[in-house]
Specification:
Layout: H1 6-16, E1 20-23, E2 26-29, H2 41-53, E3 61-69, E4 79-88, E5 92-101, E6 104-114, H3 138-144, H4 151-158, E7 163-167, E8 182-189, H5 197-207, E9 229-240, E10 250-260, E11 263-272, E12 277-289
Antiparallel strand pairs: 1-2, 2-4, 3-6, 3-9, 4-5, 5-6, 7-8, 8-10, 9-12, 10-11, 11-12
Length: 294
């Protein structure tokens, strides 16, 4: 079977995030084509954000979301999203979304929306790192270690993806070494998107679950690909500061101030190439050593 083109890959992602309304404030999220096992957490976050965005009228735009994962999603079933309209004010609106499979909640999310407003402004500067044109893509880096990839992981590890990542400091997933809990990557979708900024926000939300949890594993020289640790997202928060396009390069810089008690805490900042801080992210995840891996 021929490999999908970049346009086809991005169209598949857009279709994945194009949830179906099945009743008032009730939506169905499609399954990932060819998906196997556990649903990617970023997919559930992005689809829940889409459900909430479609319940808000007027100029109000999502500026923050806070989600808790309760159960792993199953790729064999679609996900149902129920939206509660908790508040609609002049400047702000609040929504709650529960994602469900087989009658059980797998995620709950609270979101806030705000009408456009001016205010005091400051931000942290964008880190001084090489630009995306100076870096190799993650896919090329993965191809370079093709022979080190166990056969059971090879198809998943090397497949074409709708989001291109160019890491500033590449790592070897199968031969991890201990390093500082800080990393940066440029990322964007691999083909142009329409001028639907709600879709851009949803796709960015999808992508924020990439690379983030791995940051807290860097000081310990472990990787989920080596089979030493069990990992899962526990919660996820995103603050959307400025408008952006996700078909243009964004810098995702992450750090992990702490890990312990089988949990790791991670933070992220997302910058446009012009230096604007467009979003911030925080996540705590399960990072548990498997028995016999010490």
């Amino acid at each position: 079977m021929p490999e999908p083109t970049p346009i086809e890959l991005v169209d598949q992602l857009a279709q994945l995030l194009d949830i179906e309304q099945i009743d008032t404030d009730l939506y169905r999220g499609p399954r990932q084509p060819g998906g196997v096992g556990r649903v990617f957490g970023g997919q559930v976050i992005a689809q829940a954000l889409q459900a909430a965005q479609r319940s808000v009228e007027g100029e109000k735009v999502a500026h923050s979301l806070h989600a808790y994962f309760m159960r792993p999603g199953d790729e064999d079933h679609p996900i149902i999203y129920r939206v509660a309209r908790d508040f609609d004010g002049r400047s702000f609106a609040n929504r709650r979304v529960v994602a469900m499979q087989k009658g059980q909640p797998i995620l709950n999310m609270a979101l806030s929306f705000q009408a456009p407003a001016d205010g005091l402004h400051h931000q942290f500067d964008i880190p001084a790192v090489p630009g995306p044109d100076e870096l190799a893509s993650e896919r090329d880096l993965r191809e370079a270690i093709r022979d080190e990839v166990p056969e059971k992981f090879r198809r998943f590890f090397l497949r074409a993806r709708p989001i291109e990542i160019r890491p500033v400091n590449p790592r070897n997933w199968f031969k991890p070494v201990k390093s500082e809990p800080v990393q940066s990557s440029w990322f964007r979708v691999v083909a142009p998107l329409p001028d639907d900024l709600a879709l851009h926000r949803a796709m960015l939300a999808y992508a924020t679950d990439m690379t983030l949890l791995g940051t807290c594993m860097l000081p310990h020289g472990v990787s989920w690909m080596t089979g030493e640790v069990q990992t899962a997202s526990l919660d996820h928060a995103i603050w959307l500061h400025e408008p952006f396009r996700f078909d243009e390069w964004l810098l995702y810089t992450t750090d992990s101030p702490w890990s312990g008690h089988s949990r790791g805490f991670n933070r992220g900042r997302i910058y446009a190439q012009d230096g604007r801080l467009v979003a911030s992210v925080a996540q705590e995840g399960l990072v548990r050593r498997k028995r016999g891996s010490d």
